[in-house]
């Protein structure tokens, strides 16, 4: 058998209180109280499905009781019907504005009271069902969003790995470049008064960190004969290599045409085309300078070059961190953004830690066993 709904009744007039209880007790579990404090005390340990609240009471008025209920999480959702001895339009409007669901003028007409209580209980039940359905749907959407985010991360990493497998480095370049980028972004974000042009939202920061791994995506379009050439490149061959930022830009530009609102794709496009630009305008492919180079591209430029310097390559031994730091510092304002070089110098210990990351996947085995 279903439990009867509980009705909390508050009226300082015992005769009125008994009248209401006798009308309702057949169908409902009635909790009679004679003042607001008693009702609020009851609600500290219990709940009610609906409340019938006398409007005019000494010490604490019905409106004051309602206001206090609305300040507590567990009582705020209980529907309140006011009972009043005065047919007062202003009072009725005030009660309804305060959040009461209904307003009944005494003397009580039994059929009206029973119908209004029944209607409000049904409405409250519908509201609860709706809130439950919304909460369930919200949870489903959150889960689906988390799944999509994981899939997005996996897709980005997969693209980066495909690019990396065709390149000349000895593994871990993607992980380390992302790590160096994360350090610079972290300290840019931590600056409470960043210089003009270095402000960054958390969303932009996360986009730059995620997209850093795609900076060389355009190398997919460079022929193996040039990309994997074990000897020094000719001038013509190097001109072909220099096209990889433009190829990368084209990949993302195509996506952006179909989804121009997505700032994430825009960040990926910026990084791919601008990570070989130089602060003094002598970089490629566009030869742009200073803050005309997107901040994301300037950050990845520092991260990418530092990793190339401290890593072993088929044509060179790794430089020590000290030597790499010396090269980057001497290129501040020439190749690199001076503000980003300052961050690099101030937090070089963290760069040294990231430089120890190696990729243990069998990349080179796949890449060179064809
Ligand atoms: Fe590159």
Question: Can you offer a commentary on this structure?
Answer:
The chain has 370 residues and is α/β, with parallel strands linked by helices. It has 2 domains: 6-136, 3-Layer(aba) Sandwich (Rossmann fold), CATH 3.40.50.2300; 166-368, Hypothetical protein af1432, CATH 1.10.3210.10. The chain has 16 helices and 5 strands. Helix 1 (14-24) links the parallel strand 1 (6-10) and strand 2 (29-33). Helix 7 (202-211) packs across helix 11, helix 10 packs antiparallel against helix 11 and helix 12 packs antiparallel against helix 13. The longest helix is centred in the middle third of the chain and has 56 residues, at 110-165. Mean pLDDT is 91; it is low at 364-370. It binds fe (ii) ion (FE2). Fe (ii) ion (FE2) is lined by residues 215-216, 244, 275-276.
